Design the sequence.
């Protein structure tokens, strides 16, 4: 370890490793795409680094992981708010989505990648149309991503027949196999838009390739009623009944759960993506996250898309996650700052099956690292790192970001994207949408 | 109107006036401490301005008004989170507050002023100890403020006898009378820490000087039980019974209300300060704000202090206010973006009795104006100004701030405070607190 590519010095290292180790005046050494070593600064006195980054007494920590979003929906941010779900979907979102194509989806995803990098996210899980465009955008931005083409029981703007969705997915899996940044998942939309045949087939495909199976489920009480009318079961029990519950399943939202559902999720080691701001804005409800965690379910945090949030800032999402469950349970001790920080880092990585690669700063893992500038009025004074990261910081406090060993942002300058062009392109997409309304 | 001190051009003017007028490519002319004129840019073609500020196609709007905070508690930010209320108060907050003095309170308030200016707040209402220090800090920062010494039925660190609290308040009223920025209020802490005698006297003092009467009330269900045990009434009914309800009263929190309480508040034209993030973090509950507004009660938004939030960013508070009531009522149409924006501007001004002076951009009002830089990834594209301000913007997007005609921040540089010194001073206060624990 005498020669490394990159050495980050002069920061408090918040590792989020299994010991929750925090190293004052620490350093992180990176070579290629990997973390080589972590320790107090002295340990690296003989180290020759091709590049040194000074954390300026800030916080060096794992990049945040967004377990559920629809990146390209940045194109529709602010198009439709404060509406009933069906008005929102039928009068605004579906008509706008019908006009999408590969290029527009890529444009929207590039903007989301820029925002995510600028707010400290280094990895995201996406579900949308033309998902190869999202994979290409993430690769161009240098972001780690789990992508999956949304599958429904009806044609999508990106394919004509249901069967083609599976072909698309399998081609995507093959295309990106072995890629250092992109993982492909199988992503049926939900139990209410996908019949049992589709879900069973999706589950089988996920197991065949050992890739995540990602679905929206139990998002609203209305969904629970619909599924109960159709199948005589809760959505989770329905998925259990057709053999789709598995450790590969990431169940997004999980707002409307029974105690029995929670037991089922735990017994099958199903992972949950918690999206509190979206669930609040759409008036879906509040997921029983403290109960899920008590039952041993792995819960990762996510923002959902920009039409139901309307940002992808995981720091702000952490703040909301920490607060909403306190008021919901009337217990101020639930969802403490450390727990929430885990939900946005190592537990999020585990939810996506990526915990061997990322989610904590550990030698041998991929170098997905962010540096927080704590020399700011709203982060002064400093009693407790974890508290500041959850309750006081925002994505804007992230100074530098490294993904897979590549510096993608330094001193808040994006290095992988031409942000002015990306913004201009999205504005053009929005102009077309405005004209067509 | 041919010569003005300051002309702001090239922005969309969101006036928040009674017509909710929005002026594309508008301008705002300021002379002395007042707004002189507002209109489309062309109207000002002959105008000679001593200084011109280019809003660069951003948003020109009234500064935000924080109706309830404890500014100096910035000194304790992150000292104690995720705790039960009584542990938090008795083991952390009260011991830390016992060590405060005038200088420390001023130091903490200066930091809060810096943060507030940096996040677009131009006016705040404060309750704390050594409140003259907060007034001095606000005046130094160039901020508009409503300040009031907290009154209890026991000695405070800033005065020995209960009676002295009233003397302190009256002296404060006299000292700042006629000041262009500072208004003094009478501020009994709460019905559970102030007996009827104190409350009646406080009410009389508020009426004598026609200044706001500000109190914490109905913050928790525990308080409701306590007051019911003592007086056989809800806290609001108790205040009514002793004649303290009046249009001058600003009732902070109002989480635990009955329908009858809401009627009472409406019939006496009592104003309410809504502090959703604090109520969530302390697990107090969710104030019935949509019901209060339906009953015609004026509700202003506030952040509460930095130990229960832990920031004073009113943009983030707006986002939370918009979302929490949707999920609480399971109705996504309540608390739409415009309504929430009013709660942080004109309605907040009305809650503090300052609506003739500030809270909207109207010729003749004081010039309390902020400029939002919308040329940012997370504010792209632009379909709806109000949506972006509430759901996507954060305080960090505020580029420039003018209070009482004075430019206090320009291009994010604070012009009235030496922020490095303020931060160093607060860090020193925190070091003392750490040592004494």
Sequence:
């Amino acid at each position: 370890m005498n020669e490394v590519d990159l050495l980050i010095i002069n920061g408090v290292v918040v590792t989020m490793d299994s010991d929750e180790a925090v190293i004052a005046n620490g350093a992180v050494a990176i070579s290629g795409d990997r973390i080589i070593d972590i320790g107090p600064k002295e340990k690296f006195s003989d180290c020759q680094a091709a590049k040194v980054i000074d954390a300026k007494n800030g916080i060096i920590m794992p990049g945040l992981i967004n377990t559920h979003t629809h990146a390209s929906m940045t194109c529709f941010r602010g198009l439709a708010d404060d509406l009933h779900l069906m008005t929102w979907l039928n009068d605004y979102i579906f008509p706008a989505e019908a006009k999408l194509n590969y290029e527009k989806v890529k444009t929207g995803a590039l903007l989301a990648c820029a925002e995510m990098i600028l707010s400290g996210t280094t990895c995201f899980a996406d579900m949308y149309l033309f998902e190869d465009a999202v994979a290409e955008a993430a690769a161009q931005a240098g972001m780690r991503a789990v992508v999956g083409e949304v599958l429904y029981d009806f044609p999508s703007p990106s394919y004509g027949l249901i069967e083609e969705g599976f072909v698309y997915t399998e081609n995507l899996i093959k295309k990106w196999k072995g890629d250092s940044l992109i993982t492909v998942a199988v992503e049926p939309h939900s139990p209410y838009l996908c019949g049992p045949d589709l879900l069973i087939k999706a589950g089988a495909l996920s197991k065949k390739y050992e890739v995540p199976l990602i679905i929206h489920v139990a998002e609203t009480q209305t969904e629970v009623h619909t599924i109960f009318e159709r199948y005589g079961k809760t959505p989770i029990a329905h998925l259990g009944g057709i053999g789709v519950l598995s450790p590969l399943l990431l169940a997004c939202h999980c707002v409307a759960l029974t105690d029995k559902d929670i037991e089922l999720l735990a017994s099958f080691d199903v992972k949950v993506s918690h999206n509190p701001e979206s669930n609040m804005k759409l008036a879906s409800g509040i997921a029983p996250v403290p109960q899920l965690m008590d039952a041993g379910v792995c819960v990762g945090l996510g923002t959902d898309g920009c039409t139901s949030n309307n940002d992808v800032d995981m720091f702000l999402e952490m703040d909301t996650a920490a607060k909403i469950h306190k008021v919901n349970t009337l217990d101020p001790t639930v969802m403490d700052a450390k727990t929430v920080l885990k939900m946005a880092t190592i537990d999020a990585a585990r939810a996506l099956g990526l915990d061997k690669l990322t989610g904590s700063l550990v030698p041998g893992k991929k170098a997905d690292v962010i540096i927080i500038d704590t020399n700011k009025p709203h982060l002064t004074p400093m009693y407790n790192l974890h508290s500041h990261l959850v309750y006081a910081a925002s994505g804007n406090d992230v100074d530098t970001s490294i993904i897979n060993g590549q510096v993608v942002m330094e001193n808040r300058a994006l290095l992988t994207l031409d942000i002015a062009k990306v913004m201009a392109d999205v504005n053009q997409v929005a102009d077309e949408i405005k004209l067509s309304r």
Observations:
- Chain A touches chain B through 69 residues (CB under 8 Å).
- Chain A has a mean pLDDT of 96.
